[in-house]
Write a structure and sequence with these properties.
Helix content is 50%, strand content 15%. The protein is of the alpha+beta class. The strands form 3 sheets. It has an 8-stranded mixed β-sheet. Strands 2-1-3 form a 3-stranded antiparallel β-sheet, covered by helices on one side. Strands 5-4-10 form a 3-stranded antiparallel β-sheet, covered by helices on one side. Helix 2 packs antiparallel against helix 3 (71-79), helix 2 (14-64) packs parallel to helix 5 (116-156) and helix 4 packs antiparallel against helix 5 (116-156).
């Protein structure tokens, strides 16, 4: 009896059963096709959201001279829900509605006895409505991602309040016009965009408190430099920093294949036996002498083979790099991996922040490499023969080099 009810006749004919089975086959084809489109749409939308976030953070970064969001922060924003859902749930809700509406059109057409071309045209119209919905959804998700990238970058720079900025023309809506120039706490912002095709954006508010904090940081930076200038005129290191900064890349580059390879780094201890083994393989320094300092090794992810070593210690508000060295196979014209030197300095910069030294890193270069490190690292020269990286230079190194690296401490 249930089958009879589905067909809609008390005494169905064999031809009615055939039509019912054929209808189900067509419905399954429609469902499978729409679901396949949904998968592609979800992948495309995620790529667009990621691009929007990156453009948003780059816009703020270029304006403020601040570092961009790293990959981990971008990934979190991609997955972060807004307007009571995420982009994936909205896509699949749209697809469920499209499948339901197309099945209804198909059933209605068959029941009314409409011709195949008439039914096909109505299904085509439904698909065009679905296409329009998709375009609007992707456009709205992209604009939200762009604004989210900007907001998170403002947050990283210490901004606590943002102002809603609307286009005050006849294309704007009452909601957006009503919010124009209103200031909100950055942790309690209304959704933006407020609706599909919304053109509003956020503008950061500079407070007296922020001005005071920036002035304090500038004063502290000045005092750090003055302390370094007033230190002994004798170099604090041993003058052996001559590592090559060969390539700016978030991972090491395999020079044989050209591919980028992810890295990991962490604290280590080099025994006398291990130091001798390293020397026998072409390492230049006795690294067992530096176990009382912080000693970090750089490896390829999942590998124990050392690609580089760096050691440093904290002195009067600075992190001093005593020694840094690339593995023998990463030196010269036939090197295996490029990018080791920059990675090791970026690690020292990150450790400086962890130690409360605000990214200030100092080292003693070989005399003929002063200009080279000024250009490649953004290092500045001091009267005692040392060079140093300030907060801004260290942040740039971390942003460039440590995106593809994991700390294993």
């Amino acid at each position: 009896m249930d089958v009879y009810k589905k067909i809609g006749k008390e005494k169905p004919l064999i031809s009615d059963f055939y039509r019912r089975d054929h209808l189900q086959q067509i419905e399954h084809q429609i469902e499978n096709t729409v679901l396949s489109i949904g998968k592609k749409e979800a992948s495309f939308t995620e790529d667009q959201i990621r691009s929007g976030i990156q453009l948003g953070t780059k816009t703020v970064s270029d304006t403020l001279g601040a570092p961009m969001l790293n990959k981990s922060a971008v990934d979190q924003l991609v997955k972060h829900p807004w307007a009571e859902g995420d982009f994936s749930s909205r896509i699949w809700n749209n697809k469920a509605k499209l499948i339901s509406s197309m099945k209804s059109e198909l059933t209605a057409g068959i029941v009314k006895g409409d011709g195949i071309y008439k039914v096909a045209n109505r299904l085509d119209d439904r698909m065009n409505v679905g296409k329009s919905d998709t375009q609007r959804l992707v456009r709205t998700e992209y604009m939200h991602a762009l604004n989210a990238g900007q907001v998170e970058t403002y947050r990283k720079q210490g901004y606590k309040k943002l102002m809603w900025s609307a286009s005050m023309d006849n294309r704007g809506c009452d909601t957006c016009h009503g919010r124009n120039n209103k200031v909100y706490d950055i942790d309690n912002l209304p959704d933006l965009p407020a609706h599909p095709n919304c053109r509003c954006t956020w503008i950061p508010q500079i407070t007296d408190e922020m001005i005071g904090e920036r002035a304090q940081k500038l004063q502290e930076a000045k005092e750090k430099v003055e302390r370094l200038v007033n230190m002994s005129t004798e170099p604090l290191g041993n003058g052996t920093i001559d590592i090559e900064i060969d390539e700016f890349t978030p991972c090491l580059r395999d020079m044989k294949t050209g591919r980028l390879v992810d890295t990991q780094y962490g604290k280590t201890n080099i025994s006398s036996k291990k130091a001798k083994a390293l020397k026998s393989k072409g390492w230049l320094f006795d690294w067992s002498r530096y176990n009382d300092h912080r000693l970090i090794q750089l490896n390829l992810k999942g590998s124990k083979e050392i690609q580089g070593l760096v050691t440093f210690q904290d002195r009067e508000g600075f992190t001093f790099v005593d020694l840094v060295e690339s593995a023998p196979n990463n030196r010269g014209t036939n090197k295996r991996y490029a990018g080791v030197g920059g990675h090791l300095f970026a690690i020292a910069a990150e450790e400086s922040f962890k130690s409360g030294n605000d990214g200030y890193v100092s080292f003693t270069p070989k005399t003929n490499l002063v200009e080279y490190y000024a250009k490649s690292l953004g290092a500045q020269m001091m009267p005692n023969g040392n060079m140093f990286l300030d907060t801004e230079a260290s942040l740039k190194l971390i942003e460039v080099y440590l995106k593809g690296s994991d700390s294993i401490d």
